[in-house]
Amino acid sequence: MNKKILICLSALCLFVSHLSNAQWVQVTGEATILESKATARVNALENAVFQAMTFTGGEIASLPMLKTYLQEDRQQYRFSGNEIRHISVLEQKDAGGKMYVTARIDIYPSAKSCHKVQYKKGLLLGKFSLAEPQQAAMGSIYQLGDDFSKVLQKNIQQHSQSFLVTGVTQVPFSVNHADAMMMLAEDNDAQYLVSGEITDISATVDDHLLQPNTINRQFALTLNIMDGKTGETIYQNSYRDIGLWPFARTSYVDTKTARFWVSPYGQSIQRVTQNMMLDIESALSCRASLPEIVNIHQGVAQINVGRVHGVHNGDQLKLWHSAGFIDQKGIPRNRMVETAITLTVDRVYEKSAELRVNQPQLASSIQPGDLLTKQLNQ
Predict the structure, then answer these.
(1) How many whole angstroms separate alpha carbon 182 and alpha carbon 192?
(2) In terms of Cα–Cα distance, which of 316, 319, 318 is closest to 378?
(3) Where is the Flagellar assembly protein T middle domain (predicted)?
(4) pTM to 2 decimals?
(5) pLDDT (tens digit per residue) in 305-362
(6) How far apart are alpha carbons 356 and 366 in whole angstroms?
(7) Which helix or strand (DSSP H or E) is residue 2 part of?
(8) What is the pLDDT of residue 377?
(9) 321, 261, 285, 295: which is closest to 123 by C-alpha?
């Protein structure tokens, strides 16, 4: 049965058609024109695809794999082995310094996507420091690192399908202090630790006949992700974007205000946070979420994940004994031993849940710190 509906959200209208398990969405993406119309077109098309995948429940972790192909200036894009099968660019126009791209996107959402069969994993955000503080002099944006962390947190909380932020800390992360990092992660119920360094916020002046003394400003950073169970670095990446700096050179700019974040430069930083969130999804979403036993009493176990992580009554989980150890070089080694014990979620709270042990005679072997994995055959 082919069913077509029109849905409007604010200024955004999506034409959605359902045909068996397939959906197609007609959506308009937008981007500010700065470097070139070609770059703005790519950004607008990526924005349209992101909106379509978010709306239909498709796996946004697959979007980074499409970016290389979207760089090509074409009207039709076809893919295989991806939930997005076809993109057709219907209209492209620029007005008011922005590029608008309207596209029809055919999507086949999978019921077995990683975010649909696992609980959300906790992230602890660390400080994003400025590598060259003197570059912040123009605008006095010395607090940009702290405010960037908050914007990244908001982006993850609103759009991530596989992660949620359990906290933001000013404690520096270090791979040389794995024990401290593991304790920090445990204190914040975080499976991963996310931090980085802002490496470039320098400005350049372009002299144009129509717009003299136009100031463009760089934004570049490095991203580091550590495993909270072992303290080792598991993912690194770098990002760079550029945005128009519309403020006077001698003015003070408060990076906590909407005035800054709606500016072309603020929007370029927000685009970086979205790319970071998508890359984290792509790299880590299919890693197993590892709820942990925090208490066991009279056959009832309590775990450190709950409603916000996607836990539901009746969920079945398998128990693994935590058998980690520290080797001769002082490096923590994470080890899990599979057991025959299964548990059923009996009561769900906001950030925790109570489980009933399905084999009561084995309940005495369960200890705080033991890990669980969600069974997929539900």
Answers:
(1) 9
(2) 316
(3) 113-255
(4) 0.80
(5) 999 999 999 999 999 987 766 777 766 666 778 899 999 999 999 999 999 999 999 9
(6) 12
(7) strand 2-9
(8) 59
(9) 285
